[in-house]
Write a structure and sequence with these properties.
4-stranded antiparallel β-sheet, Rossmann fold, 10 helices, about 35% helix, 6-stranded mixed β-sheet, alpha/beta, about 260 residues
Length: about 260
């Protein structure tokens, strides 16, 4: 997560994003080589603002490398892209200041309370104390964290930690959230509540990029991209991809892609 922290001495300058953009994420023939290994090969797609976008693929498919390039953490070997209207090569610090990131392990401080974690992340994102207090109250209500303000994170269940991690990633009100397998290891009820929260955020204009291995969640996305061996094999609304392949479910499409159509 540390790599996603921009230089917040430049926050006001770098956080400037075009107020009206058609596409929140644009990838144009993105490629990344590590020596002779081609981790990502000419990946192209466009994600409209306010969409929930699922980036799917087996381990080693290149999706993590693609995300790192889009977040400004890694320079592409070939191609280019824009995130929130910002060039991923020349405006990487601005991108990092304008997005929220939530990792699979939540990146919370277990020895701090819920409120202390919100205050810490608010300060990291350059918010003033009054802004942090206001956002903390708003997020406590929006993320269903009421009554847990003074509870140590180490004593929270996985579902509560998940919602707190989302609140911390969203405290500076980014227009793009990047969620890396945010429901891994969380019970089904908490997963369902989490996706209700994501729907509400997207309805408010926030774009969400999520990785998941749960195909029921992927089918809930507005758009999905299926990657394997560094290549983009399919992109579009889940129902459209299912219909185009003549299969019964997105899981069947995923398996067909991962096994090379066998």
């Amino acid at each position: 997560m540390n790599g996603l922290m921009p230089d917040y001495n430049r926050r006001n300058k770098d956080a400037e994003v075009s107020p009206a953009i058609e596409y929140a994420i644009e990838a144009h023939a993105l490629g990344k080589n590590f020596g002779s290994v081609q981790a990502v090969r000419e990946v192209s797609f466009q994600v409209p603002a306010g969409s929930i976008f699922g980036l799917l693929g087996p381990n080693g498919s290149g999706k993590s490398t693609t995300i790192r390039m889009l977040c400004g953490l890694m320079r592409p070997s070939t191609g280019n892209g824009r995130v929130l209207g910002l060039d991923i090569i020349t405006r990487s610090e601005a991108i990092k200041a304008s997005i929220g990131y939530m990792s699979q392990k939540f990146s919370l401080y277990e020895d701090l309370t819920v409120t202390e974690n919100l205050h810490f992340f608010g300060s990291i994102y350059g918010l003033s104390k009054p802004e942090i207090a206001r956002r903390g109250q708003e997020l406590s209500r929006e993320m269903k964290l009421e009554g847990r303000d003074n509870q140590l994170v180490s004593t929270l269940s996985g579902g509560w930690k998940q919602r707190l991690a989302l609140a911390c990633a969203f405290i500076h009100q980014p227009r793009l959230l990047v969620l890396d397998e945010p429901t891994a290891g969380v019970d089904p009820v908490s997963r369902r509540l989490f996706w209700i929260l994501l729907d509400e955020l997207a309805a408010g204009g926030v774009t969400i990029l999520v990785t998941t291995h749960y195909m029921d969640e992927a089918q809930h996305c507005h758009l999905v991209a299926l990657m394997n061996r560094g290549r983009l094999h399919a992109f579009g609304p889940p129902r459209q991809l299912i219909a185009e392949e003549g299969l019964d479910s997105l899981e069947d499409v995923f398996i067909k892609m991962a096994t090379g159509g066998e």
